[in-house]
Amino acid sequence: MPSPENTLPRFEKCAIVIDDALPTGLAMNAAAVLALSIGDAYGQSALGPEVKDRDGQVHAAITEVPLPILKADAQALHGIVAKALAEPDVFLVDFTSAAQAARDYGTYIESMEVTSAEDHVYVGVAVVGAKKAVQRLSGSLPLYR
User: Is the dihedral angle over the CA atoms 30, 32, 36, 42 positive or is it negative?
Assistant: First the structure.
């Protein structure tokens, strides 16, 4: 994952991977949080232009890059995080069970400060960057249906 002083990897490919054991509502929440974090990091560079329909109604810009929502088990999510952290062409956003359970950001911070990296329970991750790098991390995973 790039440090704050480095630029982000190019937004060529993106995948969100959700824990396949999550109930549907929590899975949708995880995907939404991860997508929002990607949008915050990449801003306008992740979006195409606004679009007008035949009647002149303007539709807000959406991502030009496909955004598949995939699924994996908890062990695979840990593996994706470990590999993504070592990949310079990938921006990683992780979402843990501590984050999902927290009622406010302060509680989340406190929980993370006392949890080691190996003890994180990931409920979802997003990987963004070079096509080949993202493909290596997520290419064999099935779509979340």
Answer: positive
Q: Which pLDDT does position 44 carry in this prediction?
A: 84
Residue 10 to residues 24, 26, 89, Cα–Cα distance (Å): 31, 29, 8
**If residue 16 lies in a helix (H) or strand (E), which one and from where to where?**
strand 13-19
Mean pLDDT by 10 residues, the chain (145 residues): 63 95 96 95 89 96 92 96 95 96 94 93 96 94 95
- pLDDT, residue 1, reads 43
Distance CA 128, CA 145 (A): 21
43 φ, ψ to 5°? 55, -140
Contacts 24+ apart (CB under 8 A), 43-49: 45/11, 46/11
| Residue 18 backbone phi and psi in degrees, to 5 | -115, 145
Residues in the chain: 145
How many Å apart are CA 56 and CA 109, to the nearest integer? 45
